Amino acid sequence: MIKYFWIIYFISLNLLLSEDNFESRNTIxxxxxxxxxxxxxxxxxxxxxxxxxxxxxTFTEATISYKVTEGLKILLPVRYAIFEEKIKRRxxxxxxxxxKLNDYTLSYKSRIQRVYEKNKDLDELxxxxxxxQYKSNKDIDPFCSYEIFNPFNSDIGKMNEYRISFxxxxxxxxxxxxxIYYQYKVEDLNKKNSEVLNIVGLSLSLxxxx
Length: 210
What we know:
The protein has 210 residues and is mostly beta strands. It is 7% helix and 69% strand. It is built from 1 helix and 11 strands; from the N terminus they run αβββββββββββ. The chain has one helix at 2-16, and strands at 22-34, 38-49, 54-69, 72-83, 87-101, 104-117, 123-134, 140-151, 161-172, 176-187, 195-209. It has an 11-stranded mixed barrel. A hairpin with a 4-residue loop joins strand 2 (38-49) and strand 3. The chain is globular. The model has no long low-confidence stretch (mean pLDDT 87).
């Protein structure tokens, strides 16, 4: 099953390369477990745009999480992103909740996000993400998610961006995993011409214990 999944992934990648609105996202992340229900996730990502794989951005993000109860966490992510002609700094505060129902896991994540950029006004928004994942008896766990972005001072229900994702997480030895997904992203909904992106992502997760 894993071999077939990789074949589908590379076929999809090849088809999307012919589109100008294509983006690839490649990420490696490390998780360090600390005492007192604390964890630190370090993520390094590279994003490339178009069929020529031109540089879009690279960023480093550190997230401190605290487990309040079973399934409930408090999150504090901090990101430093480098674009071709600008640098953005982002800090967020939020929480996540997971609920298991037999072989399915329902999760919800909400964050208040602030983005700082030189010579630009402060960008504030609220992100809400809903996700459903199926735990199979094999090494592949499929998932789907829906995420919406609301400007901080906008009316309730007025979103500026949304993302729909489909993919799977593949278990690897020693608590490692790789995630492969396709994402349909629509942003700048408040403008006359919204931007649409077809995204293929590959993410490798590692776990370290302390």
